[in-house]
Amino acid sequence: MDISLLIEKSTIVVVLFLITLGIAAYQTLMERKVAAWMQDRVGPDRAGPFGILQPLADGGKMFFKEDFIPRNAERGLFILAPGLAMFTAAMTGAVIPWGPPVEMVGRTIALQVADINIGILYVIGFASIGVYGIMIGGWASNNKFSLFSAIRTSSQMISYELAMGIVIITVVLMSGSLSVATIVEQQHGFWADGYFTWNVFKQPLAFVIFLVTSLAECNRAPFDMAECENELIGGYHTEYSSMKLGFFLFAEYVNLFISAAIIAALFFGGYNFPGMDYFSGITLSILGTLVFFAKTVFFIFVFMWIRWTLPRFRYDQLMHLGWKKLIPLAMINLVITAVVIAFTSGWFSEDKKEAAAVEVEQTQSAAILNTGSDSKTKDGFRISMNH
After folding, report:
1. Do 182 and 61 belong to one domain?
2. Same domain, 216 and 361
3. How far apart are CA 69 and CA 51, in angstroms?
4. How far is the C-alpha of 179 from the C-alpha of 234, rounded, in Å?
5. Residue 334: which of 151, 174, 226 has the closest Cα?
6. Residues with Cβ within 8 Å of residue 133, at least 6 apart in sequence
7. Which strand (E) or helix (H) includes residue 382?
8. Which residues make Cβ contacts (< 8 Å) with residue 38, sequence separation at least 6?
9. Which residues, in sequence order, are bridge partners of residue 102?
10. Do the beta carbons of residue 135 and residue 150 sit within 8 Å?
11. Phi, psi of 297 (to 5 degrees)
12. What is the CA radius of gyration of the chain?
């Protein structure tokens, strides 16, 4: 293995991990400041200037709180659950391109941990595994309220993942690739060929559905059925304390950060911005990265705005919205998109039909030839066996 590539990727992993943790920590302060602004309050302002040291105070408090395990809990799974939730949340960001490639020390460095050709499937896969941390934590606590919360959460996340998956298929149809980097590259700039390049202008309904399903996937209000304190005390982490509880809460904010980044990448061009062709080299990489993080922070604000604006849904309303509204809308949008792409690509033209007919005939001829050769081989095998 190229040692320079190993150093490059290791550095990107460490930097991305530290940035993710830092942003997740200060999202707690941002959340409280946004809530205070909407409720005409001051918010945290005691720990440091303007309260900027509040996340450090909260983290220190978590570390020094008593850590206990309930007597009747499944000890191994009880310890595993917070780590699993945190691990799946942190791993999702590995396939996101955080900025344009940069030329340094004679190398082209991609600001991405791994550009795998099934990147969007990777994101869906880890998002699906994330529910296991919550489910295991609720079940291992041996607490009825925690178990109720875990069951609610698993059904909610599975339900909304269906609509999210259909929307992602629509984006894949538009771009022709499962690679997140390719999807971002195809939204280059802002305007080309007489129309906008960003997918939000081509798929506005898909964007709205993806935004709603992302809220549900992150267990954010108005979809926070897992932690509705008036019914379930604290939800699936009722029996947790100290940094085990901190891991669950931290994983939620990491998921919020990654979800906002995925929305920016799939629908708002990622690191692309108007006028980017006037820049090049390290300047373009820096500006593109700053633009990407600005878009991500904006959607984090939108998530928080929705949380402190809308009341919580009832569980039946939650399921009704997911199964009877979002999934049918996503499927209709997918079918319309597929038909439009088929027509614009000339799939129904006479040339395409003739080419398809020729291809079918060639396939059938090849199958007949293979069948004949197989029968001859079998006859020869029988003759040799008889001898």
Report:
1. yes
2. no
3. 33
4. 38
5. 174
6. 81, 82, 83, 84, 85, 86, 88, 248, 251
7. helix 350-386
8. 305, 308, 309
9. 109
10. yes
11. -65, -35
12. 26
Task: Please check whether residues 214 and 310 belong to one and the same domain.
Answer: yes
Instruction: Kindly state the helix (H) or strand (E) to which residue 109 belongs, with its residue range.
Output: strand 107-109
H/E element, 103? strand 102-104
Whether residue 377 sits in one domain with residue 339: no
Taking every pair of Cα atoms in the chain, the longest distance, rounded to a whole number of angstroms, is 97
Instruction: In whole angstroms, give the CA distance from residue 309 to residue 252.
Output: 19
Measured in residues, the chain has a length of: 387
Question: Whole-model pTM?
Answer: 0.87
Please give the C-alpha separations between residue 199 and each of 97, 101, 180, 188, 300, in angstroms, as whole numbers. Answer: 16, 21, 13, 11, 19
Residues 165, 39 share a domain:
yes
Cis peptide before 222 (omega within 30 of 0): yes
The residue whose two tokens read 């997911």 is: 322
**pLDDT, mean of each 10-residue run, the chain (387 residues):** 81 92 93 92 89 91 87 90 91 93 84 90 89 89 87 87 94 93 92 90 95 90 75 78 89 93 96 92 93 96 92 88 95 95 77 66 69 51 45
